[in-house]
Amino acid sequence: MIETLVAQLSQLESLQKEVQNSYKQCKVVKGPQSEKLKSLLKLVSVQQSIVMKELVKIKGLISAQDETIKSLGKKLCDYSNKNSEPFYVAKKEENAPNLYRPDTDNHWSRARAYSAQQEMLHEMARLSIQPMGLSKSEEMKVAKEVAKTMFSEKIKNFEAMCDAESPLAETPIEADCPEYGI
Fold it and tell me: How does pLDDT run across 30-86, given as a tens digit for each residue?
């Protein structure tokens, strides 16, 4: 904002100089109008210098404020790190909720497993980017990219695990994931 004001003030100053030069060259304006034009040009010049001085002061104050905020942020971060507790993972409970349900083993087809897997990857991607505070459209776009990356990493790991003699290695994985273009 200040840079815009400085630019506009500089433009006004150059216009004022052009008017002064034109006035000196023409000398068409005489009498009281001449005095009014002289006083107007002088007033504009004085006001420009006052505004320019104030802009310089404001710019200095804003940069000092920015430095203060940066310093306070660093102190807050240091204080937070000094008093933070280490993160521990709690022991897994025996009767804790579980995604695996042994009684549904025979209900899973390859297509259904793939669909559930894709849904899980998209949800993990969405949850991992949610703290970024993106708009809904950006969040969907980024989540799709993250899910695509997660899926391609899964495939790389799977292919690394499979050896040439495995019957799984003969199955074309690329045919299973057309939406990712893999």
Answer: 677 777 777 877 888 888 888 888 888 888 888 899 999 999 988 888 887 777 776
- In the numeric block, which tokens belong to residue 51? 């505004």
Using CA atoms, how far apart are residues 93 and 49, in angstroms rounded to an integer? 74
In contact, 45 and 14? CB cutoff 8 Å: no
CB 157 within 8 A of CB 126: no
In a domain, 120, yes or no: yes
| Total count of domains within the chain | 2
Residues in CB range of 126: below 8 A, 6 or more apart: 139, 143
Which domain, by its residues, includes 65?
Answer: 2-82
DSSP state of 86: P
**CB–CB of 177/144 below 8 Å?**
no
Which structure tokens are listed for 85? 């507790």
